[in-house]
Amino acid sequence: MAIDPKRIREKMVQEQIAARGINDQQVLRAMRSVPRHLFVDEALQAQGYEDHPLPIGHGQTISQPYIVALMSSILDVKPGMKILEIGTGSGYQAAVLAEMGADVFTVERVKPLYLKARKLFSELRYHYIKTKLDDGTTGWPEKSPFDRILVTAGGPEIPQPLVEQLTDPGMLVIPVGDTKRHQKLIKLTLINGDIKKEDMGSVAFVDLVGKFGW
Ligand code: SAH
């Protein structure tokens, strides 16, 4: 990149995230430090910090920076929390959660994306992010329970196995919608055995494909 990525990241954080009301310092700090441009193909690196999603191949996308910040702040992450992400994609969201001090487990169903993200995690020294190639709608039972579960693809319903793999208290954030590419971002909280669901707004994610997805 011809331009200084650190400065562009600062601009991204100020103009796209802080200016839209996200003031969670832990999120802003993480997004200042993860080199987002390295999570996209070289030809797209100059657009890496723009205010929109970008293609990562195989019909998938890396989410818009604001959406990553929004979901990361909704999750209310405390250092040391175990977080399961469904939909590794480029690996960017997982890296942001890792920078926030979480113990991250991430599942991807598309093999080339899984392999690429693993390689990048190793190059960028995110050795502690655990990855798995699988249908994430069934969760990661052997590693459960998780304090937080984040699904970064949109399905028709909340996969029951994910709810069952939460700690109590725990939280699941997932885009849900009965039409493809248009969802409501649902925040599900589990407290003392009670489930509460909140609509956090409209979003547009790629499809969650699998046993409990499309
Ligand atoms: N979090 C990603 C963006 C993901 S795009 C990032 O930061 O770049 C959504 C991803 O979810 C795609 O890579 C898609 O292949 C994956 N996906 C869709 N259904 C899935 C499933 N059932 N299990 C695991 N991954 C899935």
Question: Would you kindly provide a written description of the structure presented here, covering whatever features stand out?
Answer:
The structure is a single chain. By secondary structure, the chain is α/β, with parallel strands linked by helices. It has one domain (5-203): Vaccinia Virus protein VP39 (Rossmann fold, 3-Layer(aba) Sandwich). It is 27% helix and 29% strand. It has a seven-stranded mixed beta sheet. Helix 1 runs antiparallel to helix 2 (25-33) and helix 2 (25-33) packs across helix 4 (92-99). The protein is globular and about 50 Å long. Bound molecules: S-adenosyl-L-homocysteine (SAH). The site of S-adenosyl-L-homocysteine has 25 residues, from strand 2, helix 4 and strand 4.
- Total of DSSP H or I helical runs spanning 4+ residues: 6
> Would you count the extended β strands for me?
9
Assembly type of the chains comes to single chain
CATH architecture assignment: 3-Layer(aba) Sandwich
* Strand order in the sheet with the most strands: 5-4-3-6-7-8-9
Give Rg in angstroms. 16 Å
What number of structural domains do the residues give?
Answer: 1
CATH class category name: Alpha Beta
Mass-distribution shape: globular
> Can you tell me the CATH topology?
Rossmann fold
Instruction: Find the CATH superfamily.
Output: Vaccinia Virus protein VP39
Helix-and-strand structural type: alpha/beta
- Taken in chain order, the helices and strands follow as HHEEHEHEHEEHEEE
Largest sheet: 7 strands, mixed
In whole angstroms, how far apart are the ends? 38 Å
Uncertain regions spanning at least 5 consecutive residues: none
| Overall mean pLDDT | 96
Beta content: 25-35%
The percentage helix is 25-40%
